[in-house]
């Protein structure tokens, strides 16, 4: 069998995972499994702690992945009838882990309460309830109220994904 050689990348092609997507010369854009599925998930809140302590409590394996906001830690698991994902981006200036339902459910508050109960943490660990991208008036709390990000000032540029995320959580100052 003849060996087939694939040429290397063109010198002016940026990495396919590097933003800004579709603006460089590389014709390919790579996306992660997490990035592909996360839009289907229902965000139900945020925790003012990393993913690892929750994973250790439940004996879960933390996976490393990445998406348009950068590298992240994530665990996906089922717990008392709810399918959860908890994710935390490395560069998240608020230090918040996001809690998702991988299958939308009408009782999102019950799901979050179930997680808190089983993990053995109280309401003080909740940075916010609901979807960080919805109107802040519709959420029951914010990361700022929970004490997250008190010393985070001007970490992200106004147009960056993290700046939009901070504004969605009510953390822009």
- Arrangement of strands in the largest sheet: 2-3-4-5-1-6
Structural class: alpha+beta
- Bin the strand percentage: 15-25%
Q: How does the overall form come out from the CA principal axes?
A: elongated
Distance between the termini: 63 Å
Range of helix content:
10-25%
Number of helices: 4
Produce a short descriptive summary.
The chain is 19% helix and 22% strand. By secondary structure, the chain is of the alpha+beta class.
Question: Topology, pairings included?
Answer:
Blueprint: H1 33-37, E1 42-47, H2 51-58, E2 63-67, E3 70-79, E4 82-89, E5 97-101, H3 108-119, E6 126-129, H4 161-168
Antiparallel strand pairs: 1-5, 1-6, 2-3, 3-4, 4-5
List keywords for this structure.
173 residues; 4 helices; alpha+beta; single chain; six-stranded antiparallel sheet; 19% helix
Can you put this structure into words, describing what you see?
The chain has 173 residues and is of the alpha+beta class. It is built from 4 helices and 6 strands; from the N terminus they run αβαββββαβα. It has helices spanning 33-37, 51-58, 108-119, 161-168, and strands at residues 42-47, 63-67, 70-79, 82-89, 97-101, 126-129. Strands 2-3-4-5-1-6 form a 6-stranded antiparallel β-sheet. Strand 4 (82-89) and strand 5 (97-101) form a beta hairpin. The protein is elongated, with a radius of gyration of 18 Å.
């Amino acid at each position: 069998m003849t060996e087939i050689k694939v040429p290397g990348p063109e010198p002016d092609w940026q990495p396919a995972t590097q933003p800004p997507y579709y603006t460089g010369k590389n014709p390919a854009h790579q996306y992660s499994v997490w990035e592909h599925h996360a839009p289907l998930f229902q965000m139900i809140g945020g925790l003012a702690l990393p993913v690892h302590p929750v994973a250790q409590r439940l004996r879960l394996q933390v996976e490393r992945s990445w998406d348009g906001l950068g590298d992240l830690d994530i665990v996906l698991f089922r717990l008392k009838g709810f399918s959860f994902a908890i994710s935390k981006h490395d560069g998240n200036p608020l230090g918040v882990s996001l809690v998702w339902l991988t299958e939308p459910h009408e009782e999102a508050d019950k799901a979050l309460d179930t997680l808190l109960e089983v993990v053995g943490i109280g309401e003080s660990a909740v940075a916010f309830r609901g979807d960080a991208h919805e109107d802040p008036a519709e959420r029951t709390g914010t990361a700022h109220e929970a004490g997250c990000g008190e010393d985070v000032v001007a970490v992200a540029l106004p147009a960056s994904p993290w700046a939009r995320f901070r504004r969605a959580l009510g953390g822009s100052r």
